[in-house]
What we know:
The protein is mostly helical. Among the domains are: 2-89; 243-301. Helix content is 71%, strand content 0%. It contains 13 helices and no strands. It has helices at 2-24, 30-90, 108-118, 126-129, 142-148, 150-158, 166-171, 175-194, 201-204, 218-222, 225-234, 244-307, 322-335. The radius of gyration is 60 Å and the shape is flat.
Amino acid sequence: MDKKLDASFERVEKALAVLIDSMSKYTPSEKAANGVVKAQRELFLGLEELEIHQRNVARIRQLEQETEALDAQTKQTISALWEMRKELVAVAPTKFTPTKEEKYPFTTQQLLDYARRISRNTLPPPGVTNGVDLSPAAPTTPDDQSAGGPNGSFANSIGGGGGSDPGTAASTPAPGVQDSFVSQAPSQSLTGATELPVHLKPAVNPLENAPFFTFPTIDRIRSGALAQYQDLVNRGIDPKIYDPEEEERRLKQEEQERKEAEERARQEMEEQERRMREERERMARERELARQQQQQEGGIDRRGSVLAPGQGGGQPGRSAPKQFTFLDEDDDDDED
């Protein structure tokens, strides 16, 4: 770089010396002046390259300093990690005895929160169950059935004397028990008569035997708020600043502006067509007037040519034969 700049300065000095010599001899040379300008331009280019070179050198030195600082920081971090590793290895491990409270890796509150979040996806909708209790019923035994049936309740209500014969007690039922049997029989028959057959239940309840899904289906997920957010992100719109009402107003405004532009274009086109139509009508009228004027001028000339022979010598001339008068009218028709 130094050699290049020295050569540029030397060329400038030589060009100046040649120019000064020519001017001292009162014979200035244009070639010498151009040489000075050219040498000066080369010198400026060299100075610009020198500036770029110095800037690059400064940047390289700055990068070297940053590299050295980062190397030192990396070495310090590695040394600290090594020291920490040695300290961790030197620490004696602690053995914890398992207790009853630490049997599960979660707390009761966490379990309740989880159950509350998934509760709406773990039971079928009310329309599917039709209000039926889905809890499993306890199995019944023959003893329970005999104790809970009509005979059992009747025996318990009557045979309280101990040692009495069950058959004798059953032969004389109490009045209250007899009334209850009489009232239950019509209700059971009425329920059986009003209950729909199995093949008609789907017609009344569309959700009868409907499939139940523990989690939302993919269609419902795609139609939810998260899917709408993802659609906005895919279109390059920030959901935090997205305003549906503002977007709707913007679309309405764009639609109104488009309609106004179309209306203006239509009006301009109609105005242009009207002007062109008026221009064509005006040109047609001008041509018609010019044609009529030419016809009138041609008729006057022909009349003058017909009357000219009869006016010579101051005596009235003879009129032309009748057959020649029709020729002028034929000529007029041909010109038309």
